[in-house]
Amino acid sequence: MILLSGFAATAHADSLGIGAAIVRDLPDAVETAVPTEFGFGGALLLPLRLDLAPAAALRATARFDVARGSDHVVWQLGDSEVGEAPRWALFLSSAATVGPEVRFATEGRFRPYVAGELGAALVHTFHDIERAELLDPAKNNVTSTGNLDPYSRQLALATDVSLGAHADPVWFELGYTDVFVDEAKLLRSTPELQVRRAPYGWNALRLAVGVSVPLGG
Length: 217
Fold this sequence. Notes:
This protein is mostly beta strands. It has one domain (about 15-210): Porin (Beta Barrel). It has strands at about 15, 20-25, 40-55, 55-70, 75, 80-85, 90-105, 110-125, 150-165, 170-180, 185, 195, 200-210.
């Protein structure tokens, strides 16, 4: 994937920006028979920095992540639970996090920083499900190739840490985002089958770049 260009926040004044990144979802720590894997994806970052001191700021970030991969869907068949991996799955997350950013003074152009943030993510997991019996006929058109297959939507805790550098007006950083997505019922699925998506973790490394937009005078 080609790294997108973008904008981000300044190191020396209150600022608002937009940045872009390559992300790489790492394997879950707990292995399962059919693991959820998303691999490479992209992210859009909208950081707001409010200066508290020359070397510290409050950072609030809206972030949007997307990646395509595979996951695992399970359902009830009589007294048994069965499952399979759809042909593909799509991870889509909209998150808001906030936390401190600490900057380190240097003599050169680059000013390193570290940041840690905590917040919430609204996660949608979409699927391409081939089994027509899993699709609620009252909410799906099983004969249409454009039908939106059953999907999950849920809120989850999001944490983020980053190590980067400002070189006004450009910034770049290496970051890590963690979102645990618990098991969830698939919307638009057949109610009697109790169709669910298996839990997984979004453990994504991030390489981001951008340009700053200062606020105020």
